[in-house]
Design brief:
Oligomer: single chain
Number of strands: 22
Number of domains: 2
Strand content: 35-45%
Order of helices and strands: HHEEEEHHEEEEEHEEEEEEEEHEEEEE
Structural class: mainly beta
Radius of gyration: 23 Å
Length: 445
């Protein structure tokens, strides 16, 4: 489920809203990793973390900042003048610096240092904004890179991607130890034979480093052991293989033609399609998008299980070679609308959705060599994000959706959207337009 990260509102809100207003690429086989593949991914995670901790770099005076960045966000770099163990201009330093809200790759970090960007960012408090300019990683940014996730996560969003382990004894290399809205670290190995101390790699002030912690202290502080779902054997029963499509269209020709057959009419939320009647177990849908700068290149949803009250879904999102898998729910027609918008579902505590207008008209949609009986929906909505410290950011979303009951799950054939994000006096509004199109689906029958 998409939720708003707990840091970096200005830097992260656009990707959040776009995250799966878009989706792209052909559906892929996402069977759970074999034990050999899981071992490789665990080893890769540890190797990536070790490289962040051992990375050698040299800052200049241009990488120091104690004041507003280009976007007006106050930045304090962890240099030695600010933190006794911080970096010094002109001297080699080991370890990528801590940057609140950051998730720089090593190449991005080195390029940023060379261009004089701030080297790290220490926040004044948990309500501080992330800098879109400073380079480095925070604790969840490090996990994002180690797990090769396609978009920056937070300590609050990571649990949705994971199983919570029953005991610290179950920890394996590459798992995480997390306290939501506080801190997360990557488990490397046991520091003692009796498993009372863990060795981790973590992003803390002033840099990424290897540390040891007593399990008893972690438990007392509210930390929990987590495992990314695709690395756990349980995922085999909670995932869908996005293969053997019933309908499929080439990305290069993914363009349909709409013909109306009746007038437009105002409708209520209750008049939205009954999605649960056409979402059998094993059904899936894959989408592509033309939206600029979207953090995901692919979005697929598959039905793991269903009941009289809803469906449990496997969501997979990819960007290049990176992928992110999670489970989420679908239990009402309102959920369907929010999935069309690709916005947080109702239980997300930091977003409020107001539907200002809903219209519908019947017609046919010719697409991929087939003509679908369909409806055109026009939706005008307002989403308000609570970003903490009494601040809210209103997001206007206008969508035109072409939907057919022949398409499982979302019933989505195509959609166009215009998103306007109002930052108030902080900066001019951001307007993003894009189009989401069906690539493939399996009806599950």
């Amino acid at each position: 489920m998409t939720t708003f990260p707990d840091v970096g509102a200005r830097a992260l809100l656009v990707p959040l809203v776009l995250a799966t207003l878009a989706g792209t690429a052909r559906a892929q086989d996402t069977q759970p990793a074999s034990s050999a593949v899981a071992s490789e991914r665990r080893a890769a995670a540890i190797s990536i973390a070790e490289r962040y901790a051992a990375h050698r770099w040299t800052a200049s005076e241009t990488n120091r900042l104690h004041g507003p960045d280009l976007h007006g966000v106050h930045v304090d770099t962890p240099d030695q003048a600010y933190v006794s163990t911080g970096w010094t201009a002109g001297s080699e330093y080991v370890g990528v610096p801590y940057a609140w809200g950051g998730s720089s790759t090593l190449d991005e970090f080195d390029a940023g240092i060379a261009r004089g960007f701030p080297a790290g960012h220490l926040p004044k408090g948990r309500g501080s904004a992330g800098s879109g300019v400073a380079v480095g990683v925070d604790c969840s940014g490090l996990i994002t890179r180690c797990w090769d996730l396609p978009v920056k996560q937070s300590t609050a969003t990571l649990p949705a991607l994971c199983y919570e382990l029953a005991s610290y004894d179950e920890l394996e290399p590459g798992d995480a130890i997390n306290r939501p809205s506080a801190h997360v670290m990557l488990f490397k190995e046991w520091a003692t034979p009796d498993r009372t101390r863990v060795r981790v790699i973590e992003a803390v002030t002033p840099r990424v480093k290897e540390s040891e912690h007593a399990v008893a202290d972690l438990i007392a502080s509210g930390f929990s052991p987590l495992r990314y779902r695709p690395l756990d054997a349980r995922w085999a029963n909670e995932s869908v293989a996005f293969v053997d499509p019933t309908f499929e269209v080439e990305r290069s020709v993914a363009q349909g033609e709409w013909t109306s057959s009746g007038p437009s009419e105002e409708i209520a939320r209750a008049d939205l399609p009954g999605v649960l009647t056409v979402a059998p177990q094993g059904a899936w849908i894959s989408l592509t998008s033309s939206a600029p700068d979207e953090p995901f290149e692919a979005h697929a949803l598959g039905v793991v299980s269903r009941s009289e009250t809803g469906a449990e879904l496997h969501a997979r999102r990819t960007h290049g070679s990176s992928a992110m898998d999670e489970t989420t729910g679908l239990s009402s027609d309102e959920d369907l609308l929010l999935r069309w918008l690709q916005l947080p579902l109702p239980e997300a505590p930091r977003a409020r959705l107001e539907l200002r207008a809903l219209e519908r008209r019947p017609g046919k949609y010719a697409y991929g060599g087939r003509t679908f009986e369909a409806h055109e929906y026009w939706i005008d909505s307002l989403l308000t994000f609570d970003v903490g410290s009494g601040r809210t950011i209103p997001v206007d979303v206008e969508m035109t959706v072409y939907a057919s009951a022949d398409v499982p799950l979302l019933q989505l054939l195509a959609a166009t959207h215009r998103v306007t994000i109002d930052y108030g006096d902080a900066q001019p509004p951001t307007v993003v337009e894009g189009r989401t199109t069906l690539l493939a689906y399996r009806d599950g029958r």
